[in-house]
From TrEMBL:
Enzyme category, top tier: hydrolase
Organism, as annotated: Streptomyces thermolilacinus SPC6
Protein name: Holliday junction branch migration complex subunit RuvB
AAA+ ATPase domain boundaries: 70-203
Alphabetical UniProt keywords: ATP-binding, Cytoplasm, DNA damage, DNA recombination, DNA repair, DNA-binding, Helicase, Hydrolase, Nucleotide-binding
Amino acid sequence: MNWDETTDETAPERPVGPAADRLVGSAADGDDQAVEAALRPKDLDEFIGQEKVREQLDLVLKAARARGATADHVLLSGAPGLGKTTLSMIIAAEMSAPIRITSGPAIQHAGDLAAILSSLQEGEVLFLDEIHRMSRPAEEMLYMAMEDFRVDVIVGKGPGATAIPLELPPFTLVGATTRAGLLPPPLRDRFGFTGHMEFYAPAELERVVHRSARLLDVEIDTEGAAEIAGRSRGTPRIANRLLRRVRDYAQVRADGIITREIAATALAVYEVDARGLDRLDRAVLEALLKLFGGGPVGLSTLAVAVGEERETVEEVAEPFLVREGLLARTPRGRVATPAAWAHLGLVPPQAAGPATGQPGLFDA
């Protein structure tokens, strides 16, 4: 192992192209990260939502402090923008410990991980975002580090190679993942606490919007906050982003006060409709309904129809459309639901479709 290797402790890879440009996208760019840092709660009492996870995590941290011990390793799973990074910082603050932040894509070699682990202080919190994207050699090294607080450093190559054990100070690993199913069982089993982050209810998002408005020194009424919360796709990060764009509109074209009318007009300018769908979401639905009669239609055909890459439609647009009950994935292709026809104000054709069991016309 080459100890001259440096580790890139950067944020996880961010999407590029259409996914990066979306106002309702759940990934954070550089500007978002800077604003989010100012809006993040500093302790569990200030953190809004995720009641079960907060209660369970509070017990874990209080018990560790009472014992004078390092907190157990924590795994947080859930969609982007729900507060996994914020909770990791709260864990460090509650334990009065420093935090080291890195990501799975940044750790491509075991040497990268060894360099980080060897420089940790006792009790330090290591936040590993997108942990499921870590390389396999680094993952195997992490097993021993989490369980025994040591790593074996391989010196030399071939028959003359020697393993030198390196003792590590006790530390707390906080892993975050958007795809918990990709984590191997041996890694999941080494976490003492696992919390799943749920999407936020509109009432919780209203509280998030009111709190962020106070911090941003923005005047907003109850109905204005409700309008923004209802279009935020259950995600605080999106709620904060929409709030900032509505604030801009209110300052430039109104008196600076955010009401329901101002919020609705501003978000119409940014092409975010009453249900939280943006241009790409509606393009997918309109193609599915108007061009293919509601489906079933193959993903590749649908992607060509909207002028996007297959991966963009599948990974960026579809998850929210499926969660909202506007689109269904079937073995024969994508199918629009009655709610999709109603949302776009269209009347479904009386032609044969999935309900009749007859073959679809667009099984590309």
